[in-house]
Amino acid sequence: MVLRIHSWGAKQLSYAGRLTLVKTVLSQLHCYWARIYLIPKGVIHKVDSICRNYLWSGKVWLLSRYSTQKTYHYLVAIRDKISWVPLVWNRVCLLKVNFITWLYARNRLLTKIRLLNVRVVSDGVCCICAATQESHDHIYFDCHFRSHFLELVKQWLEVSWSFHSLDNILRRRFKSLLQKQILMANFACLVYLIWMSRNTAKHDSSVPRPAKILQQLQHMIKFRLQVIGSEVSILRSRNWLIARGLIAC
Ligand SMILES: [Zn+2]
Question: Where are the domains of the chain?
Fold first, then answer.
């Protein structure tokens, strides 16, 4: 039975193809021998296991029992972990913030240059500065609005390092988990608020002031701190939080 499966080049067959082979060939093999010999229950279970493994995964696992986890990993071909996942999908931020950050990380935001390519808009000029084409890189790296806003955020947080890359943030060492969560949340909120400012500029023809956006960001972080911060973690980072106005003295 196992040799048959190997000879079929199992991985190339579709689920329907494997089902047909199991019904017409594999299940008939042991039925044939069952007419001649009394087959022990353990062997029947083993045969069932081989058929089941083959049907769901296209493979034969002789030494181990059927595992849903192994089958799932085999079917979806789990790839290496993506570095930005903990930064993008965390409980520190609201879901709407996570979603925009996810689109940002995947370079999937519907910028004007992308809309122009599918002829949804007639020009691809940046909604905020109107100086050049509105690409993903322009909004998040070159646009003066982003630079101004980022400077304000860095002054507020008293950090000198760049928010340029997600890896840059993830590699850093933080004094406490809460500080790490807050700085990660800041990055996500930064991405979200820049995108929202861009949308305001596009739809309302007015660009929000970076100082006002900073207030929004501080408000968002304060609100989330109430949700995620335990008494112990807040106490541990008390001075750091007070210095940034996130908690009262
Ligand atoms: Zn711009």
Answer: 2-76, 85-243
